[in-house]
Amino acid sequence: MKKTICLVLFALVINFASAQKTAEIIALEKSNLKPIESVANGFGEKVDKESQVIRINRKENFKSEAKERNEMVLSYLQSKRDMYGLSNDLNDIEITDTRKTPSGTYVYCKQYIHGIPVFASNFIVYLDKENVVRYALNEFRNMGIYERIYADPSIEGAEALKIAQEYLNIENDTECKSKTELVYFESIDKGLELAWKINVTPIESLGSWQIFVSANTGNVIHAESTNRHINGVGKVYNPNPLVSAGVPYGHGDCYSHNDGLTNPCLNGELEEVILQGISYEKGLYKLKGQYCVIEDFLSPYGHNIPQLPAPIFNYTREDEEFAAVMAYYHIDLSARRVLELGYEIPDRIKGLRVDPHVASNDAYYEQDDNYIALGSSIEFDNIFVNAGEDADVIWHEHAHTFQENFNPFFMLYAEETRSVQEGSSDYWAAI
């Protein structure tokens, strides 16, 4: 009895300290980055809500005559510069990275003005194995709305660093390391500003931070905690619209697949949740945590996995990113439920890879290669709905990872054990 009371008191102390730290972080955080808003245009594309430039192009089929991959990308951007709102000579673009996959290559570009990088600006071009451009994501900032863009700071980086340290109540600058960079920052209240981006790490009580100080006024215009694993927010179904609304499929001509489109009924069943333990890397929040990593690694390739400048993953079912948020939230929650029951997660299935968009009309766990694939697996009247839209399917597949990794020799997936595994996976999804 005494041991139990001590454990409870210890837990209360830890939770109280954690709550104090969280409250302190929340009080210091200042979110002022202008979001990029886009809407579907009905042609498989999304366009900017303000400028109407193309933001997401999923139906590209461009073949360049260039020999080098970077030249192919620049050739593509040059030919499409008007639809993407790019400068005529592409002097605002710099290719910063490439990432090869079994199906092709992603090329990452950054936006520059006067040789200064624009924060939270990315342009991603995907080329298949034949070097044909198939997909493009445009997150460049709309510079056409600004008459003058100044390039000379009024205050120097050292002064901005002192301002950032004062903001975080750092009395001794030897306590932490810092990195300062001049960037353009598009804020909600002031628009495009020349700013000093200051990364401070680590601060014993608060972790790592990223502070933006106006290079003209010296005001702190944006501040965020950049601990590698932090919490974000997102919208999900829990478990799916039919169950949460308590209606059958097709009810009121509202609760149906409808070619993947959403409607007020389906949006009304979305629930805002905490996305625990997501990652912050190179200025972007990613659905990458201790128990789940969302990736695009299976056919069909080229689906967008959200990587955002702010940790807000709010989508609806007609956004392909929605299935990624569903998969991350529910697999992470399933893993934490296992921990609550007193078990340990085997190392092999920590950081479990999940592809939320596979071609198969199925959802499955592949034990040999250790990943979960979510396809169009739920059938209603010969219509297949994305498995990533149903938490029951996600929890079911995650249960197979326990069965085959807690003791891989206990229940081989054959004959009677198949029924036991499928039944226990359904049970796990239902509790």
The Rg value, from CA coordinates, equals 24 Å
Number of strands: 23
Principal-axes geometry comes out as globular
Helix fraction bin? 25-40%
How much of the sequence is in beta strands? 25-35%
Description:
The protein is of the alpha+beta class. About 25% of the residues lie in helices and about 30% in strands. The protein contains 9 helices and 23 strands. Helix 8 (about 390-405) crosses helix 9 (about 415-430). It is globular and about 70 Å long. Residues about 1-20 and about 405-415 have low confidence and may be disordered.
What key attributes describe this structure?
431 residues; 32% strand; alpha+beta; 8-stranded antiparallel sheet; 5-stranded mixed sheet
